[in-house]
Amino acid sequence: MKVETDVVIVGTGVAGLFSALNLPSDRKILMLTKEDCESSDSFLAQGGICVLRDEEDYESFFEDTMKAGHYENRKESVDIMIRESREVINDLIRYGVDFEKENGELTYTREGAHSKPRILYHEDITGKEITSKLLAKVRELPNVNIMEYTTMTDFIVENNRCFGVVAKHNYKDAQELQIYADNTILATGGIGGNYQHSTNFPHLTGDAIRIGQKYGVKMEHLDYVQIHPTTLYSKKPGRRFLISESVRGEGAVLYNKNKERFVNELLPRDVVANAIREQMKKDGTDFVWLSMEHIAKEEILKHFPNIYQRCLEEGYDVTKECIPVVPAQHYFMGGVWVDSDSKTSMEHLYAAGETSCNGVHGKNRLASNSLLESLVFAKRAAKKIKENYKAE
Ligand SMILES: Cc1cc2nc3c(=O)[nH]c(=O)nc-3n(C[C@H](O)[C@H](O)[C@H](O)COP(=O)(O)OP(=O)(O)OC[C@H]3O[C@@H](n4cnc5c(N)ncnc54)[C@H](O)[C@@H]3O)c2cc1C
Q: Active-site residue numbers?
């Protein structure tokens, strides 16, 4: 079946939703998602979202991002992300996102490898707070149509120009949809579904990357995969539950089997994950311990209610005892290469969010930079498309 639209957006996480909100309101937009709208990694984000607090913080925010990325980051992209962060946060607040405040002022927390507190948060469910508010706003737009349980299976391409995508509803014998669009935005998230142990939703399998490769779309750093140091150890199959870095930022410590500390918990993620692996090898264990004994019970209940509840369901009271944690696949720094307007190497094809690689994260992502990077560069994709429509 042939479907015609102005812009097709594949993915309804923060990158897809924020693109839709920033595209011209007189253009027809069709959004696809492989599952329901709530099943995206954006809903899972716990710790928070970074922002440039003030001009004085610029140098240190830039340096923290570069250092965590082993200085393989694209400097221009890092600069754009930091400079445009306040504007994006103001957009979110306008859309009704409720960040933690004290006496009417925004409160900032800190995570691993950040030299200062510069992370806004909503309890330990920041992703759900942001994404649900964006989704509600998109649902109000009369020019946007969302198709759930619909999977992109191919691009429509001629002479390195994208004319849309091929998709299929996820039920047996569904008809193939040929979705023709002036512009296509890939916002299909990460690749965790390809791993046995991952914090990601299992349906996130890097489809845009696989299809893009078929057409020679430029890719970057496909081997740069981030392993998160602390997920709750479980013998059960399925998605691993993340114990956010902000727990360590607030004072949680890691212990070996003898309950001794073995690493500075606030080092970058890759360094901490490697130290845990080495310790597990030395101890002959499948996990190490994480202790929240240095965080006040009231703080745990106020800042980390979701983690507290989930651990309780698994049989651990984090206010009284250590929990077993293990590293797991978490984030993909590489992806579809894009320029600073989120344009890929194929004409009329854009990519934003985790599926894209604009170089912000280099070899290793700094905590809480992902939501920000996704939003900043999704907005830039929408702006570029808007400009091109105007110029026609
Ligand atoms: C547990 C967890 C905690 C995190 N915490 C933080 C945090 O505190 N701060 C932070 O900055 N980042 C955090 N992250 C990372 C961040 O959440 C993600 O990188 C970000 O939300 C990615 O957004 P996205 O829009 O690119 O992708 P997603 O939100 O993953 O959305 C991908 C979308 O693409 C759709 N899709 C995929 N393939 C297809 C296809 N073939 N056809 C149709 N649709 C498709 C999916 O259904 C989904 O709608 C966390 C991630 C996880 C997993």
A: 269
